[in-house]
Amino acid sequence: MKTRPERPQPGDYSDLGITWCEAYASQLSPKAWTHYRQLLSKHILPSLGSLELRAIRPETIARWQADRLAAGHGRVSVRYALTLLGAILQRAFENGQIQSNPARAVRKASLPRRTEVRPLAPATIERMRAASSARDATLISVLAYAGLRPGEALALQWRDVREQTILVERAISLGEEKDTKTAAHPTVRVLQPLAADLRVWRLRSGRPSESSLIFPSATEALWTLAAYQSWRRRAFKRAIEAAGLEHGRPYDLRHSFASLLLHEGRSVI
């Protein structure tokens, strides 16, 4: 059964916090709930939580946004916080608590320029694999040569691997199994090098059952968020550095798979 982080009580927060709880408590997934709570407690409540809803005006929000940016907070997180604040105030407007939504009159801070997506070449990926443990090397193969999202790869069971395809029908989020991001259950063609890596890893794992996880955590269970973050900071970072790269994310390997398909002559669609 899924559990949500402890719900704030009405006495814990100001009008803003109470309105937020009423608007979102029953709607959000545990991951989204945690993310929004962090935005609320880090960005919104310290500066605006003491104000009555009707005292929050466009100039109040514009000054708040400018102060957050001047304090060194990232533009992306501040924009997320402003979007959340606007949704809270919209709920208050719909409930008749305020006469208009002041956030609608505030221009959001511009986003930073996106960095160019640079797929990793197979030679680079192989250097990463060479610097990794057998499990991590196989996980990198699945990410780079099958294009799975990290949460999807960590939720794979051996029965999902067929002769020529991998079935993707679940993912891991905050240590819990859930549906895939798009709620679709696609099959991905297994490239021959990946098929060989998976066969070797299964033998080294002691030929686990069909229902076993391909990449179990240290406790033989689903990966928790803390376990995944630790893996990124240590094992994945070590692989990135061994390949001569300055930075990289596990998700970036998905671009490498797309690049391989395009090289084969597949259409972008």
What does this structure look like?
The chain has 269 residues and is mostly helical. It folds into two domains: 96 residues, DNA polymerase, domain 1; 142 residues, hpI Integrase, Chain A, CATH 1.10.443. The chain contains ten helices and four strands, in the order H-H-H-H-H-H-H-E-E-E-E-H-H-H. The strands form two sheets. It has a two-stranded antiparallel ribbon with strand order 1-4. It has a two-stranded antiparallel sheet with strand order 2-3. Strand 2 and strand 3 form a beta hairpin. Helix 3 packs antiparallel against helix 4. The protein is elongated and about 65 Å long.
**Helix share, percent:** 40-55%
How many beta-strand segments? 4
Strand order of the largest sheet: 1-4
- Label the overall shape: elongated
Tell me the span between the first and last alpha carbons.
Answer: 37 Å
Strand content: under 5%
Main sheet summary: 2 strands, antiparallel
Low-confidence stretches: 1-5, 7-13
CATH topology of the largest domain: hpI Integrase, Chain A
CATH class of the largest domain: Mainly Alpha
Radius of gyration: 23 Å
Total number of domains = 2
Put simply, the count of helices is: 10
CATH architecture of the largest domain: Orthogonal Bundle
Mean pLDDT reading: 86
What is the secondary structure topology, with strand pairs?
Layout: H1 15-24, H2 30-48, H3 58-70, H4 75-94, H5 122-130, H6 134-146, H7 150-154, E1 165-167, E2 171-173, E3 176-178, E4 187-189, H8 192-204, H9 225-242, H10 253-263
Antiparallel strand pairs: 1-4, 2-3
